[in-house]
Prior knowledge:
The complex is a heterotetramer, with 2 copies of chain A (294 residues) and 2 copies of chain C (270 residues).
Chain A: H1 7-14, E1 20-23, H2 33-41, E2 47-54, H3 56-63, E3 67-75, H4 84-92, E4 96-99, H5 102-113, E5 118-121, H6 128-131, E6 136-139, E7 148-152, E8 158-166, E9 172-173, H7 181-184, H8 186-189, E10 192-200, H9 203-207, E11 213-215, E12 222-225, H10 243-252, H11 256-268, H12 273-279, H13 282-288
Parallel strand pairs in A: 1-2, 1-8, 2-3, 3-4, 8-10, 10-12
Antiparallel strand pairs in A: 5-7, 6-7, 8-9, 9-11
Chain C: H1 3-6, H2 15-24, E1 32-34, H3 40-51, E2 58-61, E3 65-66, H4 80-83, E4 88-89, H5 96-100, E5 108-112, E6 115-117, E7 122-123, E8 126-128, E9 133-136, H6 143-146, E10 152-157, E11 165-166, H7 183-186, E12 192-198, E13 201-205, E14 212-217, H8 223-228, H9 248-258
Parallel strand pairs in C: 1-2, 5-10, 6-11, 10-12
Antiparallel strand pairs in C: 2-3, 3-4, 6-7, 8-9, 12-13, 13-14
Amino acid sequence: MTKVTTIEDAIASHVQDGDIVALQNMATQAAPMAAVRELIRQGKRELGLVVLVGGMAVDWLAAAGVINRLIGAAVSMEQFGLCQQYRNAVERGDIAVEELSETALNARLGAGARNLPFLPTRGLIGTDLIDINDNLVMIPDPFGGTDIVACKALVPDVALVHAHRADQHGNVQYEPTILWPDIGIMPKAATKVIVTAEEIVDTEVLRRNPDRTVLPGFIVDAVVEVPYGAHPTSFPPSYGYDGAMHLEWAKGARDPDATAQFMEKYITGPGDQAAYLDAVGGVGKLAAMQNWEA
Amino acid sequence: MTKVTTIEDAIASHVQDGDIVALQNMATQAAPMAAVRELIRQGKRELGLVVLVGGMAVDWLAAAGVINRLIGAAVSMEQFGLCQQYRNAVERGDIAVEELSETALNARLGAGARNLPFLPTRGLIGTDLIDINDNLVMIPDPFGGTDIVACKALVPDVALVHAHRADQHGNVQYEPTILWPDIGIMPKAATKVIVTAEEIVDTEVLRRNPDRTVLPGFIVDAVVEVPYGAHPTSFPPSYGYDGAMHLEWAKGARDPDATAQFMEKYITGPGDQAAYLDAVGGVGKLAAMQNWEA
Amino acid sequence: MGDWQDSPPSTDYTIDELMVAVMSTFFVDEDQACNGMASFIPVSAFMLARATHAPNLVWLAGASGLEPRPEKVPASTLEAPLWGDSVMYVEQYGDFWNYALNGRWLQKFCVGAAQLDMYGNANNSVIGDYDNPKVRLPGTAGLGDMGSIGKLLYYWNPNHNPRSIVEKVDFVSAAGYLGGGSEREDLGLTGGPQAVVTNLAVLDFEPESKRMRLVSTHPGVTVDQTQEATGFELVVEGEVPETTVPTEEQVRLIREEIDPDGMRKREFGR
Amino acid sequence: MGDWQDSPPSTDYTIDELMVAVMSTFFVDEDQACNGMASFIPVSAFMLARATHAPNLVWLAGASGLEPRPEKVPASTLEAPLWGDSVMYVEQYGDFWNYALNGRWLQKFCVGAAQLDMYGNANNSVIGDYDNPKVRLPGTAGLGDMGSIGKLLYYWNPNHNPRSIVEKVDFVSAAGYLGGGSEREDLGLTGGPQAVVTNLAVLDFEPESKRMRLVSTHPGVTVDQTQEATGFELVVEGEVPETTVPTEEQVRLIREEIDPDGMRKREFGR
């Protein structure tokens, strides 16, 4: 029974308005951008996002009015600056932010994955971030030490990840690279998992390197083949971020008209990934691109 | 500044009588047996052991009177039966056992590694193992659910592990295989770490596969090159367990004289790893051996 | 696919083969199964289920190697020969619990226990006093977790006798229904023991009292014989049927393809 | 090895080069250092320390790649070009905290903050009210942890002004000395802010009151100028010396070998 489907079907079938969506992402790295574009094209509303560090994906979703809350440790495009559309939406009151430290976010997700009511951390003690968050509670140490922070379990409705390869059963493999917590813990905490992959391969291919398989098929609900599925973010070691496109967005995001044009040109205009790849210059250009610039 | 030394020096310098020693081990798999033999040869006393599953290593240490307590989830040589010397010593009252479930042991070690007073589990609830253990305490869920088990942090004094390769700085690499918690968490919880490795290589060799390096040099105190350092336990994918030797021990361990003869022949008699390898038939025989038998 | 069902009942099956066949029925297609050490009967049952009615049974061998294709049941169920040809290594074993503790996956677990009592509590710790034991048993390992975290537990016991199936375990190292009735539920624990397959009979737990109940006796074994081999009074409701025996094709699969070396027989007569 | 020390003071260093040189002195041989994103000054400082006084400084780039050998400071400090040539990947990022939370390793951490106050508390969360912010900042990320878990914190700030060095942060997103005095200690927190390197001066914290104190002003900058650029009254004890400037060799290393593309200059003038 294959789990292979289209991105349109995967998002339509498994993401409901109001869901909490755990999103693989770093400042400029490894986000399932094809899935993000589909969330926008399908006009999803009132989603909550969970990110360790959110980048352009968060900014696009904020610009399109898809999200109304975010649970995460940071949102930034690093050298390309803050995410302006996200920032504006928060300052307008359109997006509520539950800001967590990294260990607190890991603890909330780890407790979700392991069916624990909470996991503790010593991070954040003394900060105002505990005071404003009902999901963080100081508790006594039953063994007589100082109080620590209990971080309430978080179970996202769906996790979106992008991978190097997967098979039809949803077994997911990555090339050697850093696997941020969005891979290490988010898919295990989430109720459903949607995987986009650079390529779908026969299971025999995965058996050659079982140590590189990092998510088992039994936790995955849908698999979609999407070459360049992380573009314009980087997907090491396969490709770097598209610096020119990040600059184009960072510049345009300060201006409503430029933002609208960008969205039309790259997101809502192109109907699918093939059209998107044409809009950003075609696969030939991407393959030849010197990455990691700017 | 190299951390490379001899097994004699590593054990003499870093293991004190009375220490809690975290030991890599499974029923028949991947124990640092050369280090275990050296603990016996140096006449260490009153050591506590931490094992997920202890096998022949535990039985040897029990037979030699090296250990007086054990913290672990199980002790067994699987198809070769229970560890008789260990069992006898426990029944005599010479070894005290803190028996934990796997999640409780992981929680105690995880809390030790992360400087947390405890980590929680839902395992063991309802069992008698909580009642007899002061390191396990039922605590309330601050978010209103049912009580859970707080597992007190455990910080072993020293961890002993065997690896496929290491460099002089103590960076440790494994071939693709299952990494039991003795690798995943014990060395990070322990105050000191001693690594034996099938080979010591130049750091450049490790750089070819940084994803296979699983322990960083900065947590490691001593590195010793010991080919066949896990023999007679298995060390996948390099070699299988020595079934004949397991059978010899399992049979002999029921009889004091046979046990003493075995210890003299293989452990206290041979003065070092080279002599040990000769005593078990030599490297040529080991290389040609059909493993995984019996 | 239907061969094994259409095949006639075996007339020369052995008791280990019957137990393997019964255990295989506990797993349906697309379930996830995992095994620990010295689990030759469950491993044979998983392989039989995959070869017959549950081709898509997900198997996490040794809680570590996903979808392995061992040539046959090897001499150990917790060593690399079992999972050498896997789709995935749960490489850091700690990660296994990210799947097992979650209520959605790996819901069924096969369990061996030195002692099992009338309420399905298990003891792998000690006979006698904990601090001053008459017999030190191997230890609770993962079972101490599996009993408390909502799993459905399936016990196997190749040596059904009053010392292994007891009224009350000397020490509860894995939670069954505790003192029976709602006691397990009252602690907030879900799941629990579902069935016990021994060399004499198949048993389950009466839904209200949670006492062990006789489901069927194996051909040639009487209810009285089963009761005599048990350390307490079994719940017996009406006529007790005979356990369904494996088909000729199931026996052929076990003997020729799954476990030609007879590893499954190792657990008997201890 | 001694070249950089024997080399004469640079006469054409730029302020970013001075800051890199000062930050490099916080790390001694065999320390472990790690960096987060947009950390061009610290990354340059680690590379300079390794090229001069601390050749065995252990560097965990992006908290993920051990002992990398980047050709030069790349355009991002949290992308693969920084750690492509590593001895080890901390492949599952969660594992990083097994090292960082342990009191024995990775004891020093370099921190950038939108706001820093007189007691070394940092704010990367919001300007204004948390729920109704005037400015939404990027978020606390790992700093919210590092402030509370006993690390020694070294702040850098390329834009020393009364909006970034403030009397009281709008919101404490990382713990410094809280309200000063023993308040941090009273919560059981060890470590804490050690130094602040800005484009004007080097500062630390007076041991009793835990108030920010002027250590040295950079050549050409007066105490008064520094005080004016600061949102509260600095502790000034006696004559304030001039910050040691980098040597010619340090400047050459930074310009030619470590950061030829001048990434370290990106953080200035924002």
